[in-house]
Design a protein that fits this description.
13 strands; binds glutamic acid; about 45% helix; Glutamyl-tRNA Synthetase, domain 3; mainly alpha; two-stranded parallel ribbon
Length: about 500
């Protein structure tokens, strides 16, 4: 790509960032990095009624956690700043005025009540009221009223909005990098408000002006903005500016494959929809986050990358660097991407396996401390090596390894019924004697002696090994028994067997 790639993520700070928003940020980030471009964060806070104070920081923290920080944005390399639209509000009016002067926009004085009456009137006749070419000459605006009347109303302080004058009888032909050519009849569009009576621009005007001033080369955003694309393309035309390229990402669908994934689906189906936990400052409601639920950021990001994109190969595990190398808008699909909580867990499991025992030990030690266990780091590292393949989260480690640190506090009843027979206690007593003969209690020695003894008794291995497992672990689970025995040591092994004999009589 010869041009200078500049993309932006432009969230509105109305609450916590949904995972779909993180996916949009990620695709922008990947595209920027792939083309040695710039990833801009712009805060679109023109709608003061929906503004939530802690949302901007939440967005920034989420990008940081995902390791996809912005290059330019609030407080960082403010080359084209400010990056909060509320701090740019003085700037937009001149652009609304410019469009009026060029005949691409007009003043409209219709009150909310009047518009409502029109809407109701139309509904009563089975029609939909659209403010556009069809009726604009009959409404209260500068296209219908005389210049004097308009000037007088403005001088009198009457409230007005500025509307876009959508061209009539044109077929607008647009290009989307993902969807290809899109054609639309301009007569179906309404004359959108560009500038509100409170002196603030609407999303449409502010978005286009800022994308232009910030020299954005590609607009990569969610499919929900596709209906706005005709207006945006027309606005560039009206200003005489070169439009950026557009790419509308597919929707993220519910796990059932139908309907957009909503914030409520997470609560209903038991998975997070936000990257980080979020506390609503008004209600004190806490929403779960992937981070706090124990997901690795790399796993979350890898999973998100596959929501609407695929590399065209069998490879599924991609580091961020590999994603940057492989990412391509051409491989982003048009159709919705089904979110799968199970696949997300699978990604986490894969990333957990890729982590070194040393790294995982660092994560496990604080959990052990919480349990009141003060274990040697080398010992914990060995434990982690033995159990990690069965874990999806670090939080699973305790269930998989508690017996390395403390004696079982109970025994699985079903297993006891099945495995602890009348003759078992005698066998276990004999086993204790056998174990006591092993001087150097290594895996090899323990294995040779114990297996030799079982063979000499001509009984099945299970008759000894299953009750032994129950004695040491409390249930029929866990890694190799000889690993467990040598880790906890001869003395503890013997103690646990005698405990079991006493308790399971
Ligand atoms: N502020 C819009 C949002 O909240 C930005 C849409 C766009 O990227 O143009 O998603």
């Amino acid at each position: 790509m010869s041009e200078n790639v500049r993309v932006r993520f432009a969230p509105s700070p109305t609450g916590p960032l949904h995972m779909g928003g993180v996916r949009t940020a990620l695709f922008n980030y990947l595209f920027a990095k792939k083309h040695n471009g710039t990833f801009v964060l712009r805060i679109e806070d023109t709608d003061q009624t929906r503004y939530v104070a802690n949302a901007e920081q939440y967005i920034i923290n989420s990008l940081d956690w995902c390791n996809i920080p912005f290059d330019e944005g609030p407080g960082k390399n403010e080359k084209f700043g400010p990056y909060r639209q509320s701090e740019r509000k003085e700037l937009y009016k001149q652009y609304a005025d410019e469009l009026i002067a060029k005949g691409w926009a007009y003043y409209a004085f219709d009150t909310a009540e009047e518009l409502d009456a029109h809407r109701k009137d139309h509904e009563a006749n089975g029609k939909t009221f659209i403010y556009n070419w069809h009726n604009r000459e009959k409404l209260q605006n500068s296209l219908a009223l005389s210049a004097e009347n308009v000037a007088q109303r403005i001088a009198d302080g009457e409230k007005f909005v500025v509307r876009f004058k959508t061209p009539q009888d044109e077929t607008l032909i647009m290009q989307d990098e993902i969807r290809g050519t899109i054609k639309i009849d301009t007569n179906t569009l309404d004359d959108k408000v560009l500038f509100k009576s409170d002196g603030m621009p609407t999303y449409h005007l502010a978005n286009i002006v800022d994308d232009h001033l910030m020299q954005i080369s590609h607009v990569i955003r969610g499919e929900e903005w596709l209906p706005s694309m005709p207006l945006h393309v027309l606005l560039y035309k009206a200003f005489g500016w070169e439009a950026p390229k557009f790419a509308h990402l597919p929707l993220i669908l519910k796990p059932v494959g139908k309907g957009k994934l909503s914030k409520r689906d997470g609560d209903k189906l038991g998975f997070p929809v936000f990257p980080l936990a979020y506390t609503n400052e008004d209600t004190n409601d806490v929403s779960r986050g992937y981070k706090e639920d124990g997901y690795f950021a790399e796993a979350f990001v890898n999973m998100l990358a596959f929501l609407g994109w695929n590399p065209g190969t069998e490879q599924e595990i991609f580091s961020l660097e590999e994603l940057i190398q492989s990412f391509d808008l051409e491989r982003v699909s048009k159709s919705g991407a089904k979110f799968s909580p199970d696949k997300t867990k699978w990604f986490n499991q894969q990333y957990l396996q890729l982590k070194s025992a040393e790294e995982l030990t660092k994560l496990y030690l604080p959990l052990l401390t919480e349990k009141g266990i003060n274990a040697d780091e080398n010992y914990v590292q060995k434990v982690v090596t033995l159990i990690k393949e069965r874990a999806v989260f670090v939080a699973d480690f305790w269930d998989l390894s508690s017996f390395f640190f403390e004696n079982p506090s109970s025994y699985d009843e079903k297993a006891v019924k099945k495995q602890w027979k009348d003759t078992t206690a005698d066998l276990m007593n004999e086993l204790v004697a056998v174990i006591n003969t092993i001087e150097d209690f290594t895996v090899d020695n323990a294995q040779t002696v114990i297996k030799g003894w079982i063979t000499s008794k001509e009984i099945g291995f299970g008759k000894v090994m299953q009750p032994l497992r129950l004695s040491l672990v409390g249930k029929l689970a866990g890694p190799d028994l000889f690993d467990i025995m040598t880790m906890i040591g001869k003395e503890t092994t013997v103690k646990r067997i005698t405990n079991a004999i006493e308790n399971l009589l």
